[in-house]
Amino acid sequence: MEITDDLVEHIAHLARLEFEGEKKEAIKADLTKIIGFVDQLNAVDTEGVEPLIFMTNSINVLREDEVKETITQVEALKNAPHKDSDYFKIPKVLKK
Fold first, then answer.
1. Alpha-carbon span 3 to 35, nearest angstrom
2. What pTM does this model have?
3. pLDDT tens-digit profile of 11-51?
4. Where is 71: in which H helix or E strand?
């Protein structure tokens, strides 16, 4: 596949980008390299190779949930610029 100025401009338009001069040439060179890498992958014989679904054989390796108190309510409110007993006070953001 040949990377032309028209193709670069079309991709740039779709991505809402603009490339001029040296940057356009750099993008053309990068796209040409990417196409070359994909062609190398297409050349690999994958006949008989099963698709890789999971990266490891491990199933549902999760840690146990442990409830911990990391910060108390008093500590959380300690440096609040505005507070009302147990709550942070913030400016009104909704209109009635």
1. 9
2. 0.49
3. 999 999 998 889 999 999 999 999 999 999 989 998 998 88
4. none
